[in-house]
Amino acid sequence: MKTPFLLLTICSVFLILVFIKEAKAFFDENEIVQITEIAQQQNIEINKWSMYIKEPIKEYNTKNDIKKIIMEIKKSETGYKWVTHQFKEDHFKIIGERISSNEDINEKIIIIYFPLKDKYNLSITYDIKGSNWDEKKWSEISNLYKSKIEDFTAFYTVEGTTSINEPIEVEAANLLKSFSGETIQTLEEENFVSLSAYTRRWDTKLPLGNNQFMNLNIAYRNSNPSNGSIKVTIGSPIITSEY
User: Fold this and answer.
1) For residue 89, what are the contacts with CB-CB under 8 A and spacing of at least 6?
2) How far is CA 240 from CA 133, 155, 158, in A?
3) Fewest beta carbons less than 10 Å away: which of 121, 126, 223, 242?
4) What is the dihedral of CA 201, 202, 206, 212, to 10 degrees?
5) Rounded to two decimals, what is the model's pTM?
6) What is each CA distance from 213 to 171, 181, 208, in whole angstroms?
């Protein structure tokens, strides 16, 4: 009688270990986790981070079909406060907002629908923002959005500040080396530099034409040269915030 119970126990432990290993791999390999680790290694103090997930636009035959989908979203996504804006005839934007109890994580679901020819188009976007950086809180958030991260393209942005010893273009290039990245395009202005780059660390990539791709965006801005504080913004596959 003990043998079946022992086998069941061993199988249960094995499944738990596999689940833990997969969850850890998902967390460790995620772009934003790697970005924050490298940023902290380069003495960049993280002030903000964000994740932006956009589902492909879907077509529906009638407005009632759209409304059914929206009702299902509101029912399944709990804790949100919803506001509807009509910005044109039959063009609607519905925003759901959920703020964590300590107000350092803000989650939004942005739903837009509008007529196009004889169909209705529906766009759904998830916009998650946080202040500072806390791996435990990120682990909780990433678990909530795990299926969406795997099914759709997620855009990550990390903002921070640092002090530098070299010109900003040199500092940006050194940071890119930490990602084992290759520069694809460069934009340089006075007190500002932006690098579009590609790294083999991640599978996600955006086509730029001429068989070129990018999945890493780095920007340095010296907005106040007198105090020596530099704003650093890092995004994958691109930066989605103003920088």
Assistant:
1) none
2) 18, 7, 10
3) 242
4) 30
5) 0.84
6) 23, 12, 5
147 contact partners, CB below 8 Å, separation of at least 6: none
Convert the pLDDT of each residue in 165-204 to its tens digit: 899 999 999 999 999 999 999 999 989 999 999 999 999 9
Instruction: Tell which residue, 169, 179, 174, has the closest CA to residue 199.
Output: 179
Return contacts of 180-188, CB within 8 angstroms, 24+ apart: 181/216, 184/208, 184/212, 184/213, 184/214, 185/214
Q: For residue 137, which of 77, 49, 73 has the smallest C-alpha distance?
A: 49
Write down how long the chain is: 243
The pair of structure tokens assigned to 211 is 């068989």
